[in-house]
């Protein structure tokens, strides 16, 4: 049993392990090739985050989905390169909007070269993904275009905020379906489709990816509050400090509005304060960890993970299906 990919995924079959490892190695080569330019500076900027590493979660999902058809089919690895290039491009753009200074343990592109270079580098990665897609056929292009529209729509909805009268929690989940769920769903769709899997399997895996993507993001929301830095590798309260209204915060605000309890109102006021102050942030984290809003966010996270697992029921029993189920377990463990 070998651990591969993110979140400690254990592969219990040597053939599956070999396929996944070989596929991910080929994706890595493809990413380096796709980010080369005749202009050395563009190559440096485009490969900045590729060489910084990352989980390669989306390519891993492509490889697992391809197990339901022919994992060696010629379109599998290129489609995995496409989804990872698209993901990387969004990170360049996200860091500009968030004014982030660090990404994957290195300076963000905008911190190193400025916003103009960062946004153009993201555009360069999108263009390279499109060039690869053109060789995969019009259906692959259409799928990517629809997913990218959903991704951008999710980002715009997040920036605009919920319209008057809209439940902020429902709005947030809609944002995640676009921003996170769409590209993870496409990863599953491409892997299954490019491998020649049956259309019913393609649709099942696509739906799984959508729910799994939301579950993983919600687990990150919980971890930002519940974990310590040694456990998660991330400084607790990072999202709070950046003013990001994650699911636990949204549940808190909903409870405060409904109950009018002074302690809930006070905690909301603290969240609106200067969380650059370490002492204030520590107190907010202490209170949130003991608040029912965090447990509600955990339950929501687990619900999405279980929905993802339930979609797998019609699939034939195999080691790839077990690995996908294990990813659902990983979400539950992270949020627990």
TrEMBL record:
The protein's matches in InterPro entries, at most eight in alphabetical order, are given as:
Isoprenoid_synthase_dom_sf (IPR008949), Polyprenyl_synt (IPR000092), Polyprenyl_synt_CS (IPR033749)
Q: Pfam families under this entry?
A: polyprenyl_synt (PF00348)
- Top EC group: transferase
Q: Which CDD domains match?
A: Trans_IPPS_HT
What PROSITE patterns does this protein map onto?
POLYPRENYL_SYNTHASE_2
Q: Which GO terms describe its biological process?
A: isoprenoid biosynthetic process
Q: Does the keyword Transferase feature in the UniProt annotation? A: yes
The Enzyme Commission number assigned here is: 2.5.1.30
Q: Name one GO molecular function term.
A: heptaprenyl diphosphate synthase activity
Keyword line: Magnesium, Metal-binding, Transferase
Q: Which cofactor does it need?
A: Mg(2+)
- Has the keyword Magnesium been applied to this entry? yes
- Please report which protein family the annotation says this sequence is part of: Belongs to the FPP/GGPP synthase family.
Q: What is the protein name stated in its UniProt record?
A: Heptaprenyl diphosphate synthase
